[in-house]
Amino acid sequence: MSRRVLLFGATGTIGRAVAHALAEAGFEPVCVVRSGAENCPELAGYICQTADVSSVDSVRENAFSGDPFHAVISCLASRSGTPRDARAIDYQANSNILSAAKSAGVPQMILLSAICVQKPRLAFQRAKLAFERELIDPGLTWSVVRPTAFFKSLSGQVERVRQGKPFLLFGNGEITRCKPISDTDLARYIVSCIDDPQCHNRILPIGGPGPAITPLEQGAKLFELTGQPPRYRRVPPALLDVIIAALGVVGRFSQSVADKAEYARIGRYYATESMLVWDETAGRYDEAATPEAGSETLFDHYTQLVEESPER
Fold first, then answer.
1. Which pLDDT tens digit goes with each residue over 198-244?
2. Within a 13 Å sphere around the CA of 132, how many CA atoms are in the beta-carbon half?
3. Secondary structure E strands in the chain
4. Quick check: pTM over 0.85?
5. Which residues fall within 8 angstroms of residue 41, CB to CB, at 6 or more apart?
6. For residue 137, what are the contacts with CB-CB under 8 A and spacing of at least 6?
7. Three-state secondary structure along 124-191?
8. Is 62 helix (H, G, I), strand (E, B) or coil?
């Protein structure tokens, strides 16, 4: 008899990968989607149920219906990261799911969070942390998965480089480092948390296979793969401070400008903070302390993208 797992955020990049990993591991994924997304082609063949995650009643009545669930996994994340969206999705929607799961007697919940909540300075980080604290409940088996960087977020300049444009760097390109993890490797790790007692009731930072890489190294690899001569354009992080300050003043009178200021703060954070485990005692990011999972590297992913380019 297959074990049913309720999956939220299934239409997202990681959520789709988790659905596939669940099926691969012998579970029966039941994907919760918003109204109108029932026929998502990437989820063809899976059971899909519609629910409004902003309503605990809708989640309870529509998502948790039918036979009991072995576990619930949430891959929900706010798209914009603005305070309003972060509160609604990163905190409140997940809180609604947890409440409904408890009412339905589901014994386990796994949350996809983010490693950047270690040093919370942004609205979406604070919202994620607020729900993490709520999830840590002695009456429930829980796991909080905090991945490092995603391949998708580090692949935005592939096309620029392929077209002969410069690779954009903040500062000298060596301010930050990360151990990115692929969608497939992360999804399999999340699914492994269901049955692995070593993952239960723990906060789990996780990256892909090392070593940690800098943006400068990412650019160098892309130039090598595309055969383009190395060209870099360096942006001083202080420029973002100026932009944030200016938007912050105007944002007091305009919500849209306030949102742009938050986008700039998010950009600055990722331009200046490494996606590795933070050692609070030493006051530094620790590559060796950042766990690894899977086998695919970012450079493997770059190679595949370049080889699949229609102009090659």
1. 999 999 999 999 899 999 999 999 999 999 999 999 999 888 888 98
2. 21
3. 3-8, 27-33, 47-50, 71-74, 108-112, 141-147, 167-170, 202-206, 232-235, 277-279, 284-286
4. yes
5. none
6. none
7. HHHHHHHHHHHHCCCCCEEEEEEECCECHHHCCCHHHHHCCCCEEEECCCCCCCECCECHHHHHHHHH
8. helix
